[in-house]
Amino acid sequence: MAFWGNKQEGESPLPGQQAQVNVEGTLEEGYNDIVKSKGRAPGIDLAIKLSDMILEHAVKERASDVHIESQGANLRVRFRVDGILQDMLSSPKNSDIPLTQRIRVLAGFDPEPPTSFRNEEGRFQKMLAGRAIQVRVSSFPTVNGEKLVLRVLDRQQLGLDLEQVGLDQDAMTLIKKLIRNPYGIFFITGSTGSGKTTSLYAILKNINTPMINIITLEDPVEYRLEGINQAQISAKTGFTWAEGLRTILRQDPDVIMVGEIRDFDTAEISLRSALTGHLLFTTIHTINSASIIERLFEMGVPPFLIGSSMLGAMSQRLVRKVCPKCAQPAASPSEPVVNEFIKNMDPEEGKIVKELILKPGAAYKVEKGCPECRNTGYMGRTGIFELMLMNEEIRKHILDRAPTDEIKRTAIRTGKMRTLLMDGILKARTGVTTLAEIIRVTATMV
Ligand SMILES: [Zn+2]
Question: Is 3.20.20.140 the CATH classification of the domain at 159-445?
Fold first, then answer.
């Protein structure tokens, strides 16, 4: 596939290829040093040094994305860290240092951007901070010049082990049991950047053995996993989700991962194959676990098919963890504050939420800010989860085409489901994150 055509892909980088750049100071300082050495080295060497320096800084700062923007006469570099963009460099552009060309070549593009709009996506692998890091590059022509976005896929940051995604012990035990079912379908839902792909990968990695055939359909393939057959969807060549799935089913699979279900055909083939001896994992775009069922109804999937194939669903979000260096202890909120907070919730749910917040013994924290966390008060992220397991009561509701609210209430009452908010509160109680952060992240859901 042309997408994988970059010659650097798969090569094991030699130690000599490791970038030798100084990342002690700020990126801005490093950039100024490079600009000062202009004339003493060819521009391309400086561009190589600069791109290496940007990437080294990105890994050091745990950035998930690097934005390199030409803004007229200015060069701007921003990093997304813990979900939030931060300015790293804003300086006069130096036309003697062909930075964007350097990155374009690394990504497998032509050095110069195309004159007419074309979607450009590429990737490369590089030794950074002593480990192989995959970088996915996307180019976009703005009126001010080319904008490059580099997605940094750092396995260490991705936390591809199920133990690292942030599930508590109870949820972990349930999930580990659930993903060892011989057949059925398990859904993960969450907004963009909620970590759902990471969870899917962690699940596949957890069950992967040479004795089973795992095949994935993805768009895009975000990370290459050893021993797993990953395929890239391409609408252009007709390799659609539904077509890909039909092809996979002829490849003797045990476990199938379908990157996303968004149409009837894909949903129907997925759910039917889950009934005929295959174990499927997929994502679907909804706001919580219970509304997955309504989403499938909307696509036209018959209730019996959902009720008989679905093992369960998990909804997730990423929340920022408080900086361990500067976080301060905080008191529990007062009862009137909590009453105000829960007043628009479903009464049953509100009662549980109130008890969870006010129960004695919490070690709440509040963020402060220090140089270590760039004065944000937060460092790193973890997941909060809403795990809904299928049971007889929920199945009966599905067959009756019950509304989402009723399914959710049933899952809480009969399946002991913890909503995202409840799971988040439990995390805040242990001081991993703050109540404010949990409320920010789950605000659209209550
Ligand atoms: Zn701090």
Answer: no
What pLDDT, in 10s, does the model give residues 83-97? 889 999 999 988 889
For the chain, how far is it from start to end, CA to CA, in angstroms?
44
What element of type H or E holds 320?
strand 310-322
Q: Please give the distance, rounded to the nearest whole angstrom, from the Cα atom of residue 20 to the centre of ligand 1.
A: 29
Percent of the chain exceeding pLDDT 70 equals 94
CATH topology of domain 18-156: Beta-Lactamase (3.30.450)
Confidence at residue 158, expressed as pLDDT on a 0 to 100 scale: 63
Cα 14 versus chain centre, distance:
29
Domain map of the chain by residue range? Answer: 18-156, 159-445
Distance 320 CA to ligand 1 centre (A): 12
CA of 58 to the centre of ligand 1 (A): 19
| Residue 163 to residue 40: CA distance in whole angstroms | 50
Query: Rounded to two decimals, what is the model's pTM?
Result: 0.81
235 CA to centre of ligand 1 in angstroms: 45
Average pLDDT of the residues in 20-37 = 86
CA 72/CA 135 separation, integer angstroms = 26
CA of 356 to the centre of ligand 1 (A): 27
Mean pLDDT score, 435-444: 91
